[in-house]
Amino acid sequence: MTTLDVRADMFDAPLPPMPADAPFDFDVAIVGLGYVGLPTALAYHASGSRVLALDASSRRLRTIAARGADLIGSDRERLDAALRAPAGFRLTGDVRELARAAAVVVCVPTPVDDRQVPDLVALRAACATVVAAARPGQLVMLTSTTYVGCTRDLVEKPLQDRGLRIGQDVFVTFSAERIDPGNVGFAQEVVPRVVGGATPQCEEEGARLLSRYAAQVHRVSSLATAEMTKLLENTFRAVNIALANEFADICGALDVPVTEVIEAASTKPYGFMAFYPGPGVGGHCIPCDPHYLLWQLKALHVDAGVITEAMTRIAARPRRVVERIRDVLGRAGKSTLNARILVVGVAYKPDVADLRESPALEIIDLLIDLGAEVQFVDTHAPRIRLASGRERESLTDPAAFRADVVLVHTRHHDSDLGWLDGNTVVVDGTYRSGDIAGRVLL
Length: 442
Known about the structure:
By secondary structure, the chain is of the alpha/beta class. The chain folds into 3 domains: about 10-220, NAD(P)-binding Rossmann-like Domain (Rossmann fold), CATH 3.40.50; about 230-310, N-(1-d-carboxylethyl)-l-norvaline Dehydrogenase, domain 2; about 315-440, NAD(P)-binding Rossmann-like Domain (Rossmann fold). The protein has 11 helices and 15 strands. α4 runs parallel beside α5. Strands 3-2-1-4-5-6-7-8 form an 8-stranded mixed beta sheet, with helices on both faces. The protein has helices at about 35-45, 60-65, 75-85, 120-135, 150-160, 200-210, 225-255, 260-265, 290-300, 305-330, 360-370; strands spanning about 30, 50-55, 90, 105, 140, 170-175, 195, 215-220, 340-345, 375, 385, 390-395, 405-410, 425-430, 440.
């Protein structure tokens, strides 16, 4: 049942009609095989489930089949095992095959546009596809982070419009993903999952599905409660990161080492959680998820001043980095115009190739707009395309660039900074690269 040779033409092969009472060939189908969907599919497969792994992109499917997906080591091993398995794991781009799965889990991206407005195009399309393919006996689970009421709007109501009885014919649940890309310290199996259902029976079925691989499942009373839980998780992080950045600026003004302050505060065994400052916030969650809540609250005329201010500060952080670089250059008697600036690491976090919402991309564009010559080096992201349309490739010999300023934006564990000679000014955007001689903080 495992598909190794993924070809575009295989997705168009006709399937025989499936009777409504036909048995399910797969325990679960995963719709969307990105940074969340693929590890989720592999976790289910590793637990012994029969998995249908579906993605609309034939290119993505080929990448996965060729074992080229960006995964942590343990998931690479799982992928290799899944692709070698005699049965139980199928890669496909044919949405008609969704009818073969007892449960369908939607794991597509929910970004925001350049005006911080939720972009629901992919989610709406995926949910419409799943609803159209649904058959009696199936469970549909939404995991994509979104606004409160989205599961009801995009899954529950459309299924009812098809004449299917929720909680009897089909089961509707929400359980937001809790995957931290690149983090090897928290395997999916040990991270509790929160689930809510459209009915008590839906909740029961959702908990049963998650229990196939998750050691702990926390049930809540409704779809809306589960949706809001995810929004709180990442809004909490956003607000605290904005506060950490502000404390970094305050400590800089008062000549106090901010990381030492944070580490000292962390010795308190209650009432404090450490968040560290940085050059900005990237990825698929923190820069985006709170805007789904703010967007919904704006329509309801509900004030959320703390969250709004935190997200404003987060959005402004890349410009703060640029201003700091200009200040450093000015102190050296140089202008940003024609300055040679090298950015170390452009991925949004260490040890991943993910560039989504990475502050580095905006920082580079802003510096180029000011007339600087900007290059980068990144062992995980060999090339980038900026919002301006400009393109850059990672330098193979960063020392030869002879930068006036080096910005350490993201430091992968395999990053070799031995080429720094101690004479170049280094702006440490991580605040935690104390081994670099001559560094200055943001």
